[in-house]
Amino acid sequence: MQRILLMVLQNFWRVPAAWFKLCHYAKNTEKYPEMTKWQHIQYILKLAVTSGNIDFECYGLENIPKENGFLMYGNHQGLFDIVAIGATCPNPLAAVLKKELGEIPFVKQVKECTNSFCMDREDVRQSMTVINNVIKEVKAGRNYLIFPEGTRSKKGNEMLEFHSGSFKCATKTKCPVIPVAFINSFKVLDEKGCKPVNVQIHYLKPIYPEEYEGMKTNELADLVRERIDEVLKAYNEK
Fold it and tell me: How do residues 208-219 score in pLDDT, each as one tens digit?
């Protein structure tokens, strides 16, 4: 909360106009191009990063496909994960969020602007509906971010096991899969205070359909997890 307050205070003269515009886009999302809405979201999130006492490092932007219709799978450390992605990914991106986040101010507006989905993991039928909708959207050329752990790890720079069901989105669409590694993201909004923190986001090399063809969803989940884990272990061993 203290860091969020710092971000707001550092941009207090920008906040009202930026918030009003975001709300306008959210209420009239069909009237505006996806890139227009995405660029405004990026503007807000970049302000948050630069004013939050964060030493932010981004690696691997060259690994993001220029053509749309891909899936990103990342380890999940906290709410700042979405900020880090939104501030750096040049392509418009939607996400699959847990249902509890769907009504939080700002997250709600971003969800509506990006046509993201909220998933109730306790409701198998609703979860399958979300997965099928993501499959349709990716086939239509949209991009999605999914956190296959299902919840933030609360173990620092260590991961929980991946739920393989979310990788059905990849095996059914045969799209590029980009593993994303977050390091120290949990320190930004989930720890008290606003002391300087170093945060890294690593966009890893895409896994193309030719590489995962014939794999089961659990095998693809293991492959993505291994590649993210390599980055986390390399950082932890420093």
Answer: 999 999 999 999
